[in-house]
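#struct-help
A.M.: can someone run this one for me? Single chain, 252 residues.
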Amino acid sequence: MNFKYNGFSGIGASRRRCILVKEGLVGFAKAYQWQERIFQAKLRGNLPAEVLFLLEHPPTFTQGTQAGEGEILVSARQLKERKIPVFRIGRGGKVTYHGPGQLVGYPIFDLNNFGRDLHLYLRMLEEVIICALKDMGIAAERQPQQTGVWIRGEKIASIGIQVKKWITRHGFALNVSPDLSYFNLIVPCGLPEVTMTSLEEVLKKDLGKEEIIKKVASQFSRIFGLRMEEIPWDDLVRLLGEENKSRREWRV
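D.P.: on it. Structure tokens below:
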């Protein structure tokens, strides 16, 4: 892969196949099961293509491996009353919120194809978001010693990943038009002073979700050197379930 770290130029020329799964609003538990199925298939070598999920979730809090006590600021009773489930998962990072109006991306990639460098992979995920926002006329940036994407000091996208044998799962959450008040119920990403923002808040107008998805998918294609192919989840399951299918079906 010809990827230059400083400046993010020389995008990969191999154009690896990437299956894009867009399914709208999906419960977190179901999406986690989908991730796990693809993750295990790639660990076994049964799926050489990369996979990218672009979804939304109902209101949900997730706690990463570094999450501490007290970072959810409301009681279990209040969470139940508000119907907000909490999931402790294996990604890095602390507590975050997922909800309608937030674009969640789960790239399940084999980093053997992208430099075997976790730090570089995180920077590439940030660059996807930064470039997608640039396409919308928004100047976004990184913060020193932090993972994620900011606009004028306010955080618009969070990133948390898990990697095993260089296969990735989990990913990023980009605030498009969520109800930002949910972030007041937690210490977002373990940063007490952080202010969360959204595209709607920055642009002061409603945004077409499909157009944003297209821009994010396009930047994944450009930055990671991918050839995108959209496949509904049910069709992908059928392909995965055909145990004796020739590997040529999954050629990259």
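A.M.: thanks! The beta strands are 16-25, 50-56, 60-63, 86-88, 95-98, 102-108, 149-151, 154-164, 167-175, 226-230.
D.P.: also worth noting: The longest helix spans residues 118-135.
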